[in-house]
Amino acid sequence: MSTDSHQPPVETGDAPVATAAARDLVPFRSALRVWFLISLQTFGGPAGQIAVMQRVLVEDRRWIGQRRFNHALNYCMLLPGPEAQQLSIYLGWLLNGTRGGIAAGTLFVLPGVVALGALSAVYVAFGDTTAVAAVFAGLAPAVLAIVAQAVLRVARRSLTRPALIALAGGSFAALALFAVPFPVVIAVAALAGWLLSRRDPDFAHPPQGDGDQDETAPVISDDALHDDRPSSGRLVRILAIGLGLWAAPIAAVTVIFGSDSIFTTQGLFFSFSALVTFGGAYAVLAFIAQQAVETYGWLAPGEMVRGLALAETTPGPLIMVVQFVAFLAAYRNPGGLDPWVAATLGALLVTWVTFVPSFLFILLGAPYVERLRHNVAISAALAGITAAVVGVIANLALYFALNTLFTATSIWTWGPLRITIPDAASVNPVAVGITLVALVLTFVLRWPILRVLGVCALLGPASLLIPL
Fold it and tell me: Which pTM was predicted?
Protein backbone atom coordinates (compact mmCIF):
# COMPACT_ATOMS: atom_id res chain seq x y z
CA MET A 1 0.00 0.00 0.00
CA SER A 2 1.30 3.44 -0.83
CA THR A 3 2.17 5.60 2.15
CA ASP A 4 0.80 8.61 0.27
CA SER A 5 -2.79 7.40 0.27
CA HIS A 6 -5.29 9.39 2.30
CA GLN A 7 -8.70 8.82 3.75
CA PRO A 8 -11.26 11.64 3.83
CA PRO A 9 -10.49 14.12 6.61
CA VAL A 10 -12.45 14.10 9.83
CA GLU A 11 -14.01 17.41 10.82
CA THR A 12 -13.05 18.64 14.28
CA GLY A 13 -14.98 21.89 14.37
CA ASP A 14 -11.81 23.87 13.66
CA ALA A 15 -9.87 22.27 10.86
CA PRO A 16 -9.90 18.95 9.02
CA VAL A 17 -7.76 16.23 10.53
CA ALA A 18 -6.43 13.46 8.33
CA THR A 19 -7.03 9.91 9.52
CA ALA A 20 -4.41 8.29 7.31
CA ALA A 21 -0.76 7.99 8.18
CA ALA A 22 0.24 11.38 6.77
CA ARG A 23 2.97 13.72 7.88
CA ASP A 24 0.57 16.48 8.89
CA LEU A 25 -2.32 14.83 10.70
CA VAL A 26 -3.46 18.31 11.69
CA PRO A 27 -3.00 21.18 9.21
CA PHE A 28 0.27 22.78 10.29
CA ARG A 29 -1.21 26.27 10.45
CA SER A 30 -4.02 25.05 12.72
CA ALA A 31 -1.51 23.25 14.92
CA LEU A 32 0.62 26.40 15.20
CA ARG A 33 -2.40 28.41 16.29
CA VAL A 34 -3.30 25.87 18.97
CA TRP A 35 0.27 25.62 20.27
CA PHE A 36 0.46 29.40 20.45
CA LEU A 37 -2.77 29.51 22.48
CA ILE A 38 -1.40 26.77 24.75
CA SER A 39 1.82 28.75 25.21
CA LEU A 40 -0.17 31.70 26.59
CA GLN A 41 -1.61 29.47 29.31
CA THR A 42 1.54 27.73 30.57
CA PHE A 43 1.48 29.13 34.10
CA GLY A 44 1.95 27.25 37.34
CA GLY A 45 4.93 25.03 36.63
CA PRO A 46 4.69 21.52 35.16
CA ALA A 47 1.40 20.70 36.89
CA GLY A 48 -0.39 23.63 35.26
CA GLN A 49 1.32 23.12 31.92
CA ILE A 50 0.46 19.44 31.71
CA ALA A 51 -3.10 20.38 32.72
CA VAL A 52 -3.42 22.81 29.82
CA MET A 53 -2.20 20.29 27.23
CA GLN A 54 -4.45 17.60 28.69
CA ARG A 55 -7.47 19.88 28.44
CA VAL A 56 -6.78 21.35 25.00
CA LEU A 57 -5.36 18.36 23.11
CA VAL A 58 -7.08 15.40 24.79
CA GLU A 59 -10.42 16.77 25.94
CA ASP A 60 -11.30 19.78 23.78
CA ARG A 61 -9.64 19.11 20.41
CA ARG A 62 -9.37 15.34 20.93
CA TRP A 63 -6.32 15.19 18.69
CA ILE A 64 -4.49 12.86 21.11
CA GLY A 65 -5.98 9.92 23.01
CA GLN A 66 -5.58 9.68 26.77
CA ARG A 67 -3.42 6.55 26.63
CA ARG A 68 -1.05 8.08 24.06
CA PHE A 69 -0.88 11.26 26.13
CA ASN A 70 0.04 9.20 29.19
CA HIS A 71 2.58 7.16 27.23
CA ALA A 72 4.35 10.30 26.03
CA LEU A 73 4.21 11.89 29.48
CA ASN A 74 5.73 8.81 31.12
CA TYR A 75 8.75 8.97 28.83
CA CYS A 76 9.19 12.70 29.45
CA MET A 77 9.08 12.17 33.21
CA LEU A 78 12.11 9.88 32.90
CA LEU A 79 14.24 12.54 31.18
CA PRO A 80 16.31 15.38 32.62
CA GLY A 81 14.96 18.83 31.84
CA PRO A 82 11.51 20.46 31.79
CA GLU A 83 9.08 17.57 31.33
CA ALA A 84 6.17 19.75 30.21
CA GLN A 85 8.14 21.30 27.37
CA GLN A 86 9.38 17.86 26.37
CA LEU A 87 5.78 16.65 26.35
CA SER A 88 4.84 19.48 24.00
CA ILE A 89 7.67 18.47 21.65
CA TYR A 90 6.57 14.82 21.73
CA LEU A 91 2.91 15.65 21.06
CA GLY A 92 3.83 18.12 18.33
CA TRP A 93 5.97 15.39 16.73
CA LEU A 94 3.09 12.91 16.86
CA LEU A 95 0.83 15.36 15.02
CA ASN A 96 3.16 17.04 12.52
CA GLY A 97 6.47 15.23 12.51
CA THR A 98 9.82 16.84 13.23
CA ARG A 99 8.77 20.35 12.30
CA GLY A 100 5.70 19.97 14.51
CA GLY A 101 7.84 18.99 17.47
CA ILE A 102 10.24 21.88 16.93
CA ALA A 103 7.38 24.37 16.53
CA ALA A 104 5.49 23.11 19.60
CA GLY A 105 8.56 23.12 21.83
CA THR A 106 9.66 26.56 20.67
CA LEU A 107 6.24 28.17 21.08
CA PHE A 108 5.92 26.54 24.50
CA VAL A 109 8.81 28.59 25.92
CA LEU A 110 8.64 31.71 23.75
CA PRO A 111 6.14 33.76 25.85
CA GLY A 112 8.13 32.98 28.98
CA VAL A 113 11.38 34.09 27.37
CA VAL A 114 9.80 37.40 26.34
CA ALA A 115 8.00 37.97 29.66
CA LEU A 116 10.90 37.08 31.94
CA GLY A 117 13.34 38.98 29.74
CA ALA A 118 11.21 42.11 30.04
CA LEU A 119 10.84 41.68 33.81
CA SER A 120 14.58 41.13 34.19
CA ALA A 121 15.21 44.40 32.35
CA VAL A 122 12.67 46.22 34.53
CA TYR A 123 14.31 44.81 37.65
CA VAL A 124 17.79 45.93 36.55
CA ALA A 125 16.58 49.38 35.50
CA PHE A 126 14.29 50.18 38.42
CA GLY A 127 15.00 47.58 41.09
CA ASP A 128 11.27 46.87 41.40
CA THR A 129 8.72 44.89 39.42
CA THR A 130 5.72 45.43 41.68
CA ALA A 131 3.32 46.79 39.09
CA VAL A 132 4.15 44.19 36.45
CA ALA A 133 4.36 41.32 38.93
CA ALA A 134 0.90 42.25 40.24
CA VAL A 135 -0.57 41.00 36.96
CA PHE A 136 1.17 37.66 37.36
CA ALA A 137 0.24 37.54 41.04
CA GLY A 138 -3.37 37.49 39.91
CA LEU A 139 -2.63 34.63 37.53
CA ALA A 140 -1.06 32.38 40.16
CA PRO A 141 -4.34 31.76 42.05
CA ALA A 142 -6.09 31.07 38.74
CA VAL A 143 -3.56 28.35 38.04
CA LEU A 144 -4.56 26.63 41.29
CA ALA A 145 -8.08 26.13 39.95
CA ILE A 146 -6.74 24.88 36.61
CA VAL A 147 -4.35 22.45 38.29
CA ALA A 148 -7.06 21.19 40.66
CA GLN A 149 -9.27 20.48 37.67
CA ALA A 150 -6.39 18.70 35.92
CA VAL A 151 -5.61 16.45 38.88
CA LEU A 152 -9.25 15.34 39.04
CA ARG A 153 -9.53 14.76 35.29
CA VAL A 154 -6.22 12.96 34.85
CA ALA A 155 -6.95 10.79 37.90
CA ARG A 156 -10.43 9.93 36.65
CA ARG A 157 -9.14 8.85 33.25
CA SER A 158 -5.86 7.20 34.30
CA LEU A 159 -6.56 5.53 37.64
CA THR A 160 -8.93 2.89 36.31
CA ARG A 161 -8.00 0.16 38.83
CA PRO A 162 -7.69 0.08 42.63
CA ALA A 163 -4.01 -0.81 42.38
CA LEU A 164 -3.35 2.31 40.28
CA ILE A 165 -5.19 4.47 42.81
CA ALA A 166 -3.01 2.98 45.56
CA LEU A 167 0.14 3.70 43.54
CA ALA A 168 -0.92 7.31 42.99
CA GLY A 169 -1.65 7.78 46.69
CA GLY A 170 1.61 6.16 47.68
CA SER A 171 3.59 8.34 45.28
CA PHE A 172 1.93 11.49 46.63
CA ALA A 173 2.66 10.46 50.22
CA ALA A 174 6.26 9.56 49.41
CA LEU A 175 6.88 13.00 47.88
CA ALA A 176 4.77 15.17 50.18
CA LEU A 177 5.37 13.47 53.53
CA PHE A 178 8.72 11.71 53.26
CA ALA A 179 10.64 13.79 50.67
CA VAL A 180 11.57 10.65 48.74
CA PRO A 181 13.67 11.60 45.68
CA PHE A 182 11.62 11.80 42.51
CA PRO A 183 13.67 9.19 40.54
CA VAL A 184 13.13 6.67 43.34
CA VAL A 185 9.35 7.22 43.25
CA ILE A 186 9.25 6.70 39.49
CA ALA A 187 11.47 3.61 39.64
CA VAL A 188 9.38 1.98 42.38
CA ALA A 189 6.16 2.75 40.50
CA ALA A 190 7.53 1.17 37.31
CA LEU A 191 8.62 -1.93 39.24
CA ALA A 192 5.23 -2.16 40.95
CA GLY A 193 3.43 -1.91 37.62
CA TRP A 194 5.53 -4.71 36.17
CA LEU A 195 4.99 -6.96 39.23
CA LEU A 196 1.24 -6.34 39.19
CA SER A 197 1.11 -7.31 35.51
CA ARG A 198 2.62 -10.69 36.38
CA ARG A 199 -0.51 -11.40 38.42
CA ASP A 200 -2.93 -9.68 36.04
CA PRO A 201 -1.84 -9.55 32.36
CA ASP A 202 -4.57 -6.97 31.64
CA PHE A 203 -3.32 -4.64 34.38
CA ALA A 204 -2.05 -2.03 31.90
CA HIS A 205 -5.38 -1.81 30.04
CA PRO A 206 -8.58 -0.07 31.16
CA PRO A 207 -11.36 -2.35 32.41
CA GLN A 208 -13.95 -3.33 29.84
CA GLY A 209 -16.92 -1.01 29.64
CA ASP A 210 -15.08 2.07 30.86
CA GLY A 211 -17.44 4.67 29.48
CA ASP A 212 -15.06 7.51 30.07
CA GLN A 213 -12.64 6.08 27.55
CA ASP A 214 -15.38 6.14 24.89
CA GLU A 215 -16.35 9.68 25.87
CA THR A 216 -12.92 11.03 24.99
CA ALA A 217 -12.13 8.86 21.99
CA PRO A 218 -9.65 10.79 19.83
CA VAL A 219 -10.54 11.89 16.31
CA ILE A 220 -7.11 10.64 15.18
CA SER A 221 -6.51 6.94 15.73
CA ASP A 222 -3.37 5.88 17.56
CA ASP A 223 -2.05 4.03 14.51
CA ALA A 224 -2.37 7.16 12.34
CA LEU A 225 -0.14 9.35 14.50
CA HIS A 226 3.26 10.27 13.13
CA ASP A 227 6.12 7.83 13.54
CA ASP A 228 9.71 7.58 12.31
CA ARG A 229 11.39 4.26 11.72
CA PRO A 230 14.45 4.05 14.00
CA SER A 231 17.70 3.63 12.10
CA SER A 232 21.40 4.18 12.67
CA GLY A 233 21.42 6.81 9.92
CA ARG A 234 18.64 8.79 11.55
CA LEU A 235 20.33 8.45 14.95
CA VAL A 236 23.65 9.77 13.67
CA ARG A 237 22.01 12.59 11.72
CA ILE A 238 19.96 13.89 14.67
CA LEU A 239 22.89 13.53 17.07
CA ALA A 240 25.19 15.46 14.74
CA ILE A 241 22.70 18.27 14.13
CA GLY A 242 21.47 18.43 17.72
CA LEU A 243 24.87 18.37 19.40
CA GLY A 244 26.18 20.85 16.84
CA LEU A 245 23.35 23.31 17.51
CA TRP A 246 23.78 22.86 21.25
CA ALA A 247 27.53 23.43 21.24
CA ALA A 248 27.84 26.08 18.49
CA PRO A 249 26.90 29.14 20.63
CA ILE A 250 29.29 28.09 23.40
CA ALA A 251 32.09 27.61 20.91
CA ALA A 252 31.31 31.00 19.36
CA VAL A 253 31.42 32.96 22.64
CA THR A 254 34.59 31.11 23.64
CA VAL A 255 36.33 32.14 20.43
CA ILE A 256 35.03 35.73 20.50
CA PHE A 257 35.22 36.54 24.22
CA GLY A 258 37.69 33.99 25.58
CA SER A 259 37.43 30.89 27.75
CA ASP A 260 37.35 32.98 30.95
CA SER A 261 34.44 35.19 29.88
CA ILE A 262 31.12 35.28 31.71
CA PHE A 263 29.42 33.90 28.59
CA THR A 264 31.62 30.81 28.34
CA THR A 265 31.24 30.12 32.05
CA GLN A 266 27.46 30.46 31.87
CA GLY A 267 27.19 28.36 28.72
CA LEU A 268 29.14 25.46 30.22
CA PHE A 269 27.53 25.65 33.67
CA PHE A 270 23.95 25.75 32.44
CA SER A 271 24.62 23.06 29.82
CA PHE A 272 25.66 20.81 32.68
CA SER A 273 22.60 21.86 34.71
CA ALA A 274 20.32 20.90 31.82
CA LEU A 275 21.59 17.32 32.06
CA VAL A 276 21.01 16.86 35.80
CA THR A 277 17.48 18.26 36.23
CA PHE A 278 15.89 14.89 36.93
CA GLY A 279 12.60 15.35 38.76
CA GLY A 280 11.93 18.80 37.36
CA ALA A 281 13.25 22.23 38.11
CA TYR A 282 12.65 22.03 41.87
CA ALA A 283 15.19 19.22 42.11
CA VAL A 284 18.04 21.32 40.67
CA LEU A 285 17.16 24.87 41.71
CA ALA A 286 18.94 24.52 45.05
CA PHE A 287 22.13 23.57 43.22
CA ILE A 288 21.79 26.45 40.74
CA ALA A 289 21.06 28.93 43.52
CA GLN A 290 24.07 27.80 45.53
CA GLN A 291 26.43 28.05 42.57
CA ALA A 292 25.04 31.39 41.30
CA VAL A 293 25.10 33.03 44.73
CA GLU A 294 27.98 31.44 46.64
CA THR A 295 30.41 30.12 44.01
CA TYR A 296 30.13 32.68 41.21
CA GLY A 297 28.69 35.64 43.12
CA TRP A 298 26.35 36.53 40.28
CA LEU A 299 23.38 37.37 42.54
CA ALA A 300 22.53 38.14 46.14
CA PRO A 301 20.48 35.47 47.98
CA GLY A 302 17.37 37.66 47.99
CA GLU A 303 17.66 38.23 44.25
CA MET A 304 17.52 34.50 43.58
CA VAL A 305 14.25 34.37 45.51
CA ARG A 306 12.83 37.28 43.47
CA GLY A 307 13.85 35.61 40.24
CA LEU A 308 12.18 32.38 41.27
CA ALA A 309 9.00 34.27 42.16
CA LEU A 310 8.94 35.91 38.73
CA ALA A 311 9.57 32.57 36.99
CA GLU A 312 6.71 30.94 38.91
CA THR A 313 4.24 33.59 37.81
CA THR A 314 5.27 33.95 34.15
CA PRO A 315 4.37 31.46 31.41
CA GLY A 316 6.77 28.66 30.62
CA PRO A 317 8.82 26.14 32.60
CA LEU A 318 10.05 27.12 36.06
CA ILE A 319 13.64 26.43 35.00
CA MET A 320 13.26 29.67 33.03
CA VAL A 321 14.64 31.32 36.18
CA VAL A 322 18.08 30.64 34.69
CA GLN A 323 17.35 33.41 32.19
CA PHE A 324 16.94 35.89 35.06
CA VAL A 325 20.19 34.66 36.63
CA ALA A 326 22.08 34.96 33.34
CA PHE A 327 20.67 38.42 32.60
CA LEU A 328 21.78 39.87 35.93
CA ALA A 329 25.15 38.10 35.88
CA ALA A 330 26.09 39.31 32.40
CA TYR A 331 24.81 42.84 33.11
CA ARG A 332 27.15 43.06 36.10
CA ASN A 333 30.09 41.42 34.30
CA PRO A 334 29.81 42.73 30.73
CA GLY A 335 33.49 42.62 29.83
CA GLY A 336 34.00 45.04 26.97
CA LEU A 337 30.35 45.07 25.92
CA ASP A 338 27.57 47.48 26.76
CA PRO A 339 25.88 46.03 29.91
CA TRP A 340 22.48 45.78 28.23
CA VAL A 341 23.95 43.99 25.21
CA ALA A 342 25.86 41.65 27.51
CA ALA A 343 22.75 40.92 29.58
CA THR A 344 20.67 40.13 26.51
CA LEU A 345 23.39 37.92 25.04
CA GLY A 346 23.85 36.04 28.32
CA ALA A 347 20.12 35.47 28.77
CA LEU A 348 19.63 34.18 25.21
CA LEU A 349 22.71 31.94 25.40
CA VAL A 350 21.61 30.32 28.66
CA THR A 351 18.04 29.89 27.42
CA TRP A 352 19.40 28.16 24.32
CA VAL A 353 21.67 25.67 26.11
CA THR A 354 18.94 24.91 28.66
CA PHE A 355 16.18 24.01 26.22
CA VAL A 356 17.90 22.64 23.11
CA PRO A 357 18.68 19.30 24.86
CA SER A 358 14.94 18.68 25.26
CA PHE A 359 14.48 18.67 21.48
CA LEU A 360 17.40 16.27 21.15
CA PHE A 361 16.05 13.84 23.78
CA ILE A 362 12.58 13.68 22.21
CA LEU A 363 13.50 13.55 18.54
CA LEU A 364 16.08 10.84 19.31
CA GLY A 365 14.05 8.75 21.70
CA ALA A 366 10.41 9.07 20.64
CA PRO A 367 10.58 6.59 17.70
CA TYR A 368 12.05 3.95 20.03
CA VAL A 369 9.49 4.68 22.75
CA GLU A 370 6.69 4.33 20.20
CA ARG A 371 7.91 0.80 19.42
CA LEU A 372 7.36 -0.14 23.08
CA ARG A 373 3.63 0.71 23.14
CA HIS A 374 2.57 -2.88 22.54
CA ASN A 375 5.17 -4.52 24.78
CA VAL A 376 3.19 -5.94 27.72
CA ALA A 377 5.95 -5.66 30.32
CA ILE A 378 6.89 -2.12 29.30
CA SER A 379 3.25 -1.04 29.10
CA ALA A 380 2.67 -2.34 32.63
CA ALA A 381 5.71 -0.49 33.95
CA LEU A 382 4.55 2.69 32.24
CA ALA A 383 1.05 2.21 33.67
CA GLY A 384 2.67 2.25 37.10
CA ILE A 385 4.52 5.45 36.16
CA THR A 386 1.23 6.95 34.95
CA ALA A 387 -0.27 6.40 38.40
CA ALA A 388 2.83 7.89 40.02
CA VAL A 389 2.59 10.93 37.74
CA VAL A 390 -0.89 11.64 39.12
CA GLY A 391 0.68 11.71 42.58
CA VAL A 392 3.51 13.90 41.30
CA ILE A 393 1.08 16.42 39.80
CA ALA A 394 -0.93 16.44 43.01
CA ASN A 395 2.24 17.07 45.02
CA LEU A 396 3.27 19.92 42.72
CA ALA A 397 -0.22 21.36 43.07
CA LEU A 398 0.13 21.23 46.87
CA TYR A 399 3.55 22.91 46.68
CA PHE A 400 2.19 25.63 44.41
CA ALA A 401 -0.86 26.16 46.63
CA LEU A 402 1.21 26.53 49.79
CA ASN A 403 3.50 29.07 48.14
CA THR A 404 0.62 30.99 46.56
CA LEU A 405 -1.80 31.22 49.47
CA PHE A 406 0.83 31.71 52.19
CA THR A 407 3.94 33.86 52.33
CA ALA A 408 5.75 31.74 54.92
CA THR A 409 6.06 28.00 55.53
CA SER A 410 8.14 25.80 57.80
CA ILE A 411 9.38 22.22 57.68
CA TRP A 412 8.32 19.84 60.46
CA THR A 413 10.33 16.64 60.77
CA TRP A 414 9.88 13.55 62.89
CA GLY A 415 11.92 10.55 61.95
CA PRO A 416 11.45 10.00 58.21
CA LEU A 417 8.49 12.39 58.09
CA ARG A 418 9.16 15.75 56.49
CA ILE A 419 6.05 17.91 56.20
CA THR A 420 5.73 21.48 54.92
CA ILE A 421 3.40 23.43 57.22
CA PRO A 422 2.07 26.87 56.24
CA ASP A 423 2.18 29.70 58.74
CA ALA A 424 -1.48 30.56 59.32
CA ALA A 425 -0.57 34.15 60.15
CA SER A 426 1.03 34.56 56.73
CA VAL A 427 -2.08 33.77 54.70
CA ASN A 428 -2.47 36.01 51.66
CA PRO A 429 -6.13 37.15 51.67
CA VAL A 430 -5.92 38.56 48.14
CA ALA A 431 -4.61 35.26 46.78
CA VAL A 432 -7.30 33.35 48.65
CA GLY A 433 -10.02 35.63 47.27
CA ILE A 434 -8.80 35.38 43.67
CA THR A 435 -8.47 31.58 44.06
CA LEU A 436 -12.10 31.34 45.16
CA VAL A 437 -13.17 33.41 42.16
CA ALA A 438 -11.14 31.17 39.86
CA LEU A 439 -12.63 28.02 41.38
CA VAL A 440 -16.16 29.32 40.82
CA LEU A 441 -15.39 30.35 37.23
CA THR A 442 -13.73 26.99 36.48
CA PHE A 443 -15.92 24.45 38.26
CA VAL A 444 -19.30 26.18 38.53
CA LEU A 445 -19.52 28.41 35.47
CA ARG A 446 -17.12 26.24 33.42
CA TRP A 447 -15.46 29.20 31.75
CA PRO A 448 -12.63 28.60 29.23
CA ILE A 449 -9.11 28.78 30.65
CA LEU A 450 -8.13 31.94 28.79
CA ARG A 451 -11.18 33.81 30.09
CA VAL A 452 -10.45 32.70 33.68
CA LEU A 453 -6.83 33.80 33.34
CA GLY A 454 -7.91 37.13 31.87
CA VAL A 455 -10.25 37.93 34.76
CA CYS A 456 -7.68 36.94 37.36
CA ALA A 457 -4.95 38.95 35.60
CA LEU A 458 -7.16 42.04 36.04
CA LEU A 459 -7.89 41.21 39.68
CA GLY A 460 -4.16 41.15 40.48
CA PRO A 461 -3.44 44.85 39.79
CA ALA A 462 -6.85 45.79 41.18
CA SER A 463 -5.83 44.25 44.50
CA LEU A 464 -3.12 46.91 44.86
CA LEU A 465 -5.90 49.42 45.45
CA ILE A 466 -7.21 47.50 48.47
CA PRO A 467 -5.78 48.79 51.77
CA LEU A 468 -4.47 45.90 53.88
Answer: 0.77
